[in-house]
Design a protein that fits this description.
Structural class: alpha/beta
Helix content: 40-55%
Strand order of the largest sheet: 3-2-1-4-6-5
Mean pLDDT: 94
Low-confidence stretches: none
Strand content: 5-15%
Distance between the termini: 25 Å
Largest sheet: 6 strands, mixed
């Protein structure tokens, strides 16, 4: 009896933080679906470092208890964690250099979806990278959950 492969999903750091900040929105529904093993989460050492760093920003520190971020980072160790990310191919250009690691994760992690709430960085306008569709949390919930 074979096991069906789960879809592979990358959640932008803004979606992960959104899940912690608002327990009733699409980001939280997506995070809970991963914890219920409805898809494989793809992350990286780079993203886990970013999550720790960003959560310490003064404006987030006041609304995000450190232990909740720590719990999320620890839980994400059970995901598919890419330890080394290859550089992006020369023909792929990240509008925001801070998002280059997400595009590299999508390619090397063979993700089906990259879910982001960041409308200004150009990820959503890109629409896809390789086989990975780039969508908002609302679209992901409607299509995949």
């Amino acid at each position: 009896m074979g096991t069906e492969a789960l879809m592979r999903v990358i959640l932008d750091t803004n979606v992960l933080l959104g899940a912690l900040i608002s327990p009733h929105g699409p980001p939280d529904a997506i995070y809970r679906a991963w914890r219920a093993m409805r898809f494989d989460l793809v992350t990286s050492a780079v993203q886990l470092d970013e999550l720790r760093r960003v959560s310490r920003y003064p404006k987030l520190k006041t609304i995000l208890p450190e232990h909740r971020v720590g719990t999320m980072v620890n839980t994400m160790q059970r995901a598919i964690v890419l330890t080394r990310l290859p550089p992006l191919p020369n023909d792929i250009d990240a509008n925001d250099p801070n998002d280059a690691f997400l595009l590299a994760m999508a390619l090397s992690g063979e993700a089906d979806y990259l879910v982001t709430g960041d409308r200004r960085a150009g990820l959503l306008q890109r629409g896809h990278i390789g086989r990975t569709r780039i969508v908002t949390p609302t679209v992901f919930c409607a299509e995949a959950l």
